[in-house]
Amino acid sequence: xxxxxxxxxxxxxxxxxxxxxxxxxxxxxxxxxxxxxxxxxxxxxxxxxxxxxxxxxxxxxxxxxxxxxxxxxxxxxxxxxxxxxxxxxxxxxxxxxxxxxxxxxxxxxxxxxxxxxxxxxxxxxxxxxxxxxxxxxxxxxxxxxxxxxxxxxxxxxxxxxxxxxxxxxxxxxxxxxxxxxxxxxxxxxxxxxxxxxxxxxxxxxxxxxxxxxxxxxxxxxxxxxxxxxxxxxxxxxxxxxxxxxxxxxxxxxxxxxxxxxxxxxxxxxxxxxxxxxxxxxxxxxxxxxxxxxxxxxxxxxxx
Length: 303
Hints:
Elements: E1 3-7, H1 19-24, H2 26-38, H3 43-49, H4 52-55, H5 58-78, E2 85-90, H6 93-101, H7 107-127, E3 130-136, H8 140-149, E4 153-159, E5 162-168, H9 169-178, E6 186-189, H10 202-213, H11 237-247, E7 252-253, H12 254-263, E8 268-272, H13 277-285, E9 290-294
Helix pairs in contact: 2-5, 2-7, 5-6, 5-7, 6-7, 7-10, 10-11
């Protein structure tokens, strides 16, 4: 039976992530050790020991989640327990991990891409006054209307009844104050460093596009992978590059990605990353979708 593999996005990071994988799997250990040669900071130390405030920085947590998610797949493959991969997707940053697992680029190239993405997005966070807020209840049309009224963007469509506004801090705060009147149960400000997946990330997207153009051609994915920006499967390597650029400023259409994977006939998934966020979203998207969350070595299905 083919499994879907889904990969965590920014915000899922936790101090201690990857430590048990590193200690028990040579393949996972190689991923973390290789990161030392690519990144200008000690990823292993920050993942295993923190401090949390440094691990949470955009330029750090994006590579951390990429290496962690990829190392889970590597450990399963090493143990001969990797099931048939029927499709892959990831939430925001996790999409780049999905493409690595699907063979669009090798592990090291993917790590360099993720590191540059995180660096550029952190630059944008530091240069702008932006934030995000989660809307609970209400439908997509109401979320779009509220975003338009306060001149902010729709950052995420995570699951039915949960969307995210992203934009200038004061505008997002004003929208939060109007949320109940607009038909939402509540609006929750998010503890984020900036307005991800909004127009405030445009400078990062432009520089990221130039960076991707400087790289060798991507390969076509060996398994179906679904684009956050489109909510659909794409296979052409140049379209993948463009979709990754667009994703920096566009809405993350996670509900569409998850449902599109199910349409392939895949009902069981492994979530690779800490926290179980994607498993929680899956329950709200379609209760027939079964997601098992994998983060530590002990959680891997090795029996």
